[in-house]
Amino acid sequence: DGGITQSPKYLFRKEGQNVTLSCEQNLNHDAMYWYRQDPGQGLRLIYYSQIVNDFQKGDIAEGYSVSREKKESFPLTVTSAQKNPTAFYLCASNIQAGTEAFFGQGTRLTVV
Amino acid sequence: AQSVTQPDIHITVSEGASLELRCNYSYGATPYLFWYVQSPGQGLQLLLKYFSGDTLVQGIKGFEAEFKRSQSSFNLRKPSVHWSDAAEYFCAVSSYNTDKLIFGTGTRLQVFP
């Protein structure tokens, strides 16, 4: 079955450490996105990529980095520069910009 | 600026009652509109979408939504709510000439038996 796979589902990190969240899709979608979700704030866009080897900052990119070396993969690194990293992170993709997005099941990151 | 407003943060209904969740958007171009549902700790699932044509669109799980251009609204409705509909609902907007979806802050639906 086609879909988007995020791993791990739960992730614990010590303060000051970088951590990478995985997102893989087999939908043959060109565009991929990373969102952060906090209670009462909806989904906020971190980074997005419309094509391999290219990506753009979203609304809250500070303290995060991404890469898009393959069409199927769009990993997100939460760096130690992110002041408040504890959140639920969602990866999404769509076949082209503007169309409906398909979401992974999310990764809950907790900084301890 | 492009934006989506969901004025109701939390709604409580009894099982079997009708439901309407409000969504208003601000968008310069012809909008594409979406409703998503999210169960706790899960990703988002698409309920329905509007691109063009008939302004009343049918979705999954018995939901429908009506696009009203004059009111800049895309409200979600269901005639009879089931306990399994308890979740968070998000409205989103995009367009043919944009590169991202803009989401509202969500409405949490609670269903009482």
Helices and strands, with pairings:
The complex is a heterodimer of chains A (112) and B (113).
Chain A: E1 4-7, E2 10-13, E3 19-25, E4 31-37, E5 43-51, E6 54-57, E7 64-66, E8 76-78, E9 87-94, E10 102-103, E11 107-111
Parallel strand pairs in A: 2-11
Antiparallel strand pairs in A: 1-3, 3-8, 4-5, 4-9, 5-6, 7-8, 9-10, 9-11
Chain B: E1 3-5, E2 10-14, E3 19-21, E4 24-26, E5 32-38, E6 44-50, E7 56-58, E8 64-68, E9 73-78, E10 87-94, E11 102-103, E12 107-112
Features:
heterodimer; A: 112 residues; mainly beta; seven-stranded mixed β-sheet; 11 strands; B: 113 residues; four-stranded antiparallel β-sheet; 0% helix; globular
Radius of gyration of chain A: 13 Å
Distance between the termini of chain B: 41 Å
Fraction in helix of chain B: under 10%
- SS class of chain A: mainly beta
**Major sheet of chain B: size, sense and barrel closure?**
6 strands, mixed
Listing every helix as H and every strand as E from the N terminus to the C terminus, the arrangement of chain A reads: EEEEEEEEEEE
What is the beta-strand fraction of chain A?
Answer: over 45%
- How much strand content do the residues of chain B show? over 45%
Summarize it:
Helices cover 0% and strands 50% of the residues of chain A. Chain A contains no helices and eleven strands. In chain A, strands 2, 4, 5, 6, 9, 10 and 11 form a seven-stranded mixed sheet that branches. In chain A, strands 1-3-8-7 form a four-stranded antiparallel sheet, with no helix packed on it.
Structure characterization notes:
The complex is a heterodimer of chains A (112) and B (113). Chain A has 112 residues and is mainly beta. Chain A is 0% helix and 50% strand. In chain A, strand 5 and strand 6 form a beta hairpin. The mean pLDDT of chain A is 94. Chain B contains no helices and twelve strands. In chain B, the strands form three sheets. In chain B, strands 2, 5, 6, 10, 11 and 12 form a six-stranded mixed beta sheet that branches. A four-stranded antiparallel beta sheet of chain B has the order 3-9-8-7, with no helix packed on it. The N and C termini of chain B lie far apart (41 Å). The chains are: A mainly beta (112), B mainly beta (113). The A-B interface holds A 4, 6, 31, 33, 35, 40-43, 45, 48, 50, 56, 58, 88, 90, 92, 97-106, 108 and B 9, 32, 34, 36, 41-46, 49, 90, 94-101, 103-106.
